[in-house]
Amino acid sequence: MNKPLEFTLRAWLTALLLAASAAHAQQAAWLAPEGMPQGSAARAPLGSLWKLFVYADLAATGAQEPAYRCASAQRGSEDDYCCEPGDSVARDAALARSCGAYFAPQRLGLTAATWAERWRARGAPTWLHDLAQLQPATVVPVPELLRALAAVPPEARAAARRALLPIATREPSVLAALGSGPRLKTWSWRDAQGAPVGGAAGWLADGVPVWFGAPGSGSAALARHAGWLAQTWPAATAASPPADGPCVDVHFFNRYPLARVEKVGAGDAVPGPLSGRHRLTFANGQRLVITAQPALLLRRDGAGWAIDARLTLDDYVARVIDREGDAREPAAAQALAVAARSYVLQQAREDAACRRIGDDSRTQRVSPNPPTAAARRAAAHTQDLVLDAPVRYHQSQPAPGVLAWQQAVAQSRAGRDFTQILAHTWPAARLVGMDGLLAADCTALPAATAWLAERQHRWRERLRREPGYEPLVPMPRICQLALGLPHADSRRGLIRVRDWHSPEGRIGLVHEYLHLAFAHHPSGQDEAYIEALARELAP
Fold this sequence. Notes:
By secondary structure, this protein is α+β, with helices and mostly antiparallel strands. The protein has 3 domains: 9-235, DD-peptidase/beta-lactamase superfamily (Beta-lactamase, 3-Layer(aba) Sandwich); 240-434, no CATH class; 446-537, Arc Repressor Mutant, subunit A (Orthogonal Bundle), CATH 1.10.10. Helices cover 35% and strands 23% of the residues.
């Protein structure tokens, strides 16, 4: 397959999409200017995209390969994109930096037979079965390249999307145009005449594989044509929020007790899931009609009623936009989406399953109705993006570190994009991926970890009498919390606390430990039970 390109890439620009059905992947649409090569006529070099397939295989098989260490004496040419001499790079950073030395098959111990067997089972095109084809000069049909991307298993695709997010944030103009939903690995090589060509490939927010090519290096081509791509890929920003991502438990109308809940046309509602239109009567006599779809739950609360919901993070963010802003102002709504996502991650308590927050003017107000399509687009456009700075916002009063909605609208109408609106309020902050921020900002507290490990051994007999208790092996990492409330992060196996030396601080540490230790039992969701047990154990 290593042969010259069969046509000159420098004369054209094209973007191709492949849609994957539940059973298999098939070509759905070619989006290309008139006169462009279609179907099997489109061929392109892999460039650095071969690294994406090695990454996907490592993620899919659960490999635990060693980090790559750059030689300490002198930087080698193979380390140009990897790390400084003497430093090392791990898998996700290696993909974002395009570190070829990291993904070298020989370093990873990949064998041709095993590689072929795995990709054949995944339904990949035949060229990907051949480990020797993982070369930047390998020329492949673009439709088959899209099929290869569609063959990446879902868990590996999710891991690759997380690893590729830093690429989306490197160039503000690209981020403003495309948003953070598309996760793309750039590629660069040469056409048959030796001229530079490049582009990017990856997945849109809804998992649709995409490939893009143009004259020039991959990064330059992406920056030059980001606006055109945004017009070509509009459906990507309307994707439904991922169902398997972070979630938020919301207590609606936190400061307004409900006296009565009626299903419109059907009388009083009963405890349990709510579906359809409902009329709410508050204790103060005010009334509100809502569309309970999906996931709203009605329960008794003393003499009255309460409504809760478990929402995906982006569903929650979209509902905040509808309640606190106006999604018809796209750039302002996108800025508010980043602020709302940052706020809930900083301020909401994270239990074993989800973060918890009230629908409250003192925190964030949340619409009980399904998000509008425009609000969903604003949330999807900024998917996973947060600010690495304390976040607050206000309807009308700007201040340092406080986003004012009315000012954001004025800036939006003046032509500023969401990155510029955010930079105006937080000039020293960075836009980062929430997973990277939460994983990287762990200032370890080893003494607290040792204290907790000793206490776990001491509590062993006492806790074995509690249904659902599971000793934590290994112990969770304990990290210094700079802002927000103490919380346990079950997905990453860590606990964040402000203080653990004072009596109350140790109670808080034990409280979060117990959320993890009872993560697979209903007791882990019972705040009163967890708090009482923490106060018993902490001294």
